[in-house]
Amino acid sequence: MKPFFPFLLALPLFTANLTAHADMIYGLYADADAWRYDNQLEVAQAGTQKQSFKGDTETAAAIQLAIEHPLPFVPNLKFRYVPIELNAHTNTAAFVFNNTPYAGSVDLSLSAKQTDLILYYELLDNIVSVDAGIAAKQLKGDITVSNLITKDRIVFNETLPLVYLAASVKLPFTGLSVNTEGTGIQYQGSSLSDLKAEIRYDLVKTLPMDIGLKLGYRKQNINLKDIEHTDAKLDVKGPYLGLGIHF
């Protein structure tokens, strides 16, 4: 995948069209991150021994948009999107995928799009900020396994409920803040966690707009049982550089 830094530079132009509506809401937040991640997938037909595939290092474009308002009892809204790709090769004794046994030299590719819709409340909003809520993650994509004579592909489209927590601490008079954010769930043998931690520095801080540069680390663990007759465990982690704008 190509690096995403040019999109970071274009983010102010994208969000400028939203300023006309900013006075109708309490806060509008737009973020774009270039996430440089390593990944590993363990996969096999449900109920059989999983095979491990370590992917190449990739770069993903992660975007986030949040709308906050002063209305009581009505949750704030956040939208997040990030695609994941994994391409790997391994030599295996034997494993089963989509009713097909594989052995020897095997290639695998995974493509997944993650879309999160989050409803949350601000529990604290000062030097220390704390948010809590619920979320739904749509996980949509495909996994392909192949060798010289056989090729199998499964397509998945799952929506998972999640718990959402976030916290932020501002360092007064420095322009710096430390932010953490996470979603997660565990049920019926499946589990998912998506954790972020970052340091942000405000490049511009004016009455109509704040612009900040972010450096952080993101880690995802996705363990799915019997999805399209397949067990899969995906681990994705790595640093990211991002740009955030607040109206």
Describe the structure.
This protein has 247 residues and is mainly β. It has one domain (5-246): Lipocalin (Beta Barrel). The chain has one helix at residues 5-16, and strands spanning 27-45, 51-54, 58-68, 76-97, 100-125, 128-146, 151-171, 176-187, 190-205, 210-227, 230-246. It has a 10-stranded antiparallel β-barrel with strand order 1-3-4-5-6-7-8-9-10-11. The longest helix is centred in the first third of the chain and has 12 residues, at 5-16. The protein is elongated and about 65 Å long. The protein starts with a helix and ends with a strand.
Question: Can you give the helix content as a percent range?
Answer: under 10%
Q: Mind describing the biggest β-sheet?
A: 10 strands, antiparallel, barrel
* Ends distance: 31 Å
Give the ordered list of helices and strands. HEEEEEEEEEEE
Fold-level CATH name: Lipocalin
Question: TL;DR of this structure?
Answer:
The protein is mostly beta strands and 247 residues long.
What attributes does this structure have?
mainly beta, Lipocalin, 11 strands
Topology:
Blueprint: H1 5-16, E1 27-45, E2 51-54, E3 58-68, E4 76-97, E5 100-125, E6 128-146, E7 151-171, E8 176-187, E9 190-205, E10 210-227, E11 230-246
Antiparallel strand pairs: 1-2, 1-3, 1-11, 3-4, 4-5, 5-6, 6-7, 7-8, 8-9, 9-10, 10-11
